[in-house]
Amino acid sequence: MYRFLFGERISYIVASHIQILCLTPVVFTNAVVPRRLMSSVPGGSGENFLYVVLCGGAFAGGLAYAYRTVSTDHARFVDRVSEIDARPKSDWKPKAWPPKSKSHLWAG
User: Fold this and answer.
1) Region Disordered: what ranges (predicted)?
2) Which of 20, 35, 39, 107 has the highest local Cβ count within 10 Å?
């Protein structure tokens, strides 16, 4: 059996006691759940009502903005399409392939 020297044995005993104290859960005989002190009941101060008013106002404003934008953009869209249709149209002709000049190719 391995025999410890006196200083090593003392440090081993102290370390084992510290390990036992750290790893075992602390159990109180009269343990109670601590109460949280609240200034008021939840929602009683009107804070939730303020959030509802602010979020509801932002939502209503967003809906009004979206409706106004879509309705005015529709009229603008119709005007733009009629303007494009009124432009003179030229017949589209494809370019010849392969190109006749080779100047666009990189000379390597």
Assistant:
1) 87-108
2) 20
